[in-house]
C-alpha cells in the first residue's frame, strides 16, 4: 500500500476587493484542517489568490498585471509556505505567473513536504477569447491575458508517487491525461474556475455543467488508471457565479469524495497509489495494447476536417 492522504481544498468566492493576505488566511485555515485530518498533500484551485479576473476586460493589457505574481512564494504567500513546511504538508496551488521576461502564464505549482517547489505546470488549453465579446453574457478573456503553457505535461516523483498537474479547461481534453499517462502518472491534480452559466448557451443549466466536469475527470482517471483530484473555486464573485463540484476520483474512475457546498470546503481521502497498478497492467497496459500507427492525426491535425459531402 502506498497511501497519500490528500486534501482537496475547495475555495469559496474571492471578490475583486479581497486582498491576497485575506485569501491566504483562508488557505491557511484549510491547511490546518487538512493537517489535523492527516493530509500530507493539499490541492488548491486555479488562480486561487485572486478573483477569477479573466472575466474583467482591461483595455490596456498591462493594467491586468495587478492580478499576477512576479515571484512564488512572495510576501503574501510566504506564511502559507512557512506553515506548510512546519506541518510537513505539501501544497499545490494555482496563480497567475508573470515571469522576469514579461511572459504571462496560468500556472500551478507543487511543493514537497518541506515547502520546496518541485513541480511547475503552465496551462496549455486556454479557453475564451482575446477581445471584448458583446455576444456573451460574461467575458472569458484567458486568451487575452495568458500565453499557452510552454512546459508540456511533465510529471514528478514525490511522496512515492508519480504526480502531474493540469488546470481547469485542460481537464476536458483526453490528450492532457494521456500524455501524463504515458509517463506513468498516478495522481493528476487540477484546479478550476468554471462559471455556473455558459456565456454562449444560457439554457445549458448547472446540472449539465457539473456532469461534464465530473465526466471528464472520471474518464481521465479510468482511461489512465490514475487518481484525479479536481478542486473548484466556487460561489458568487461580484455577481458572477462559479460552480463547485470538487471531487477526488479513484483510478477506476469512481468518485470517492465530492464537495457539497460552494464555499471553502475540504475533502479528504486516503489515496492508495497501488490502486493504479491493476488498470495499468491490464486493460490500460499501454505497452501491450496501444496502436500508435493509427494515432498520427492526433498530433498532425488540430481542427476536425470532415470528408467532402
Ligand atoms: N477557467 C477555465 O478554464 N474555465 C473553463 C470554462 C470557460 C468552460 C472550463 O473549462 O471550465
UniProtKB/TrEMBL annotation:
InterPro entries: Aliph_Amidase/BUP, C-N_Hydrolase, C-N_Hydrolase_sf. It comes from Rhodobaculum claviforme. SUPFAM superfamilies: Carbon-nitrogen hydrolase. Keywords: Hydrolase. It holds the Pfam family CN_hydrolase. Gene3D superfamilies: Carbon-nitrogen hydrolase. Residues 4-275 form the CN hydrolase domain. One of its GO terms (molecular function) is hydrolase activity, acting on carbon-nitrogen (but not peptide) bonds, in linear amides. This is N-carbamoyl-D-amino-acid hydrolase.
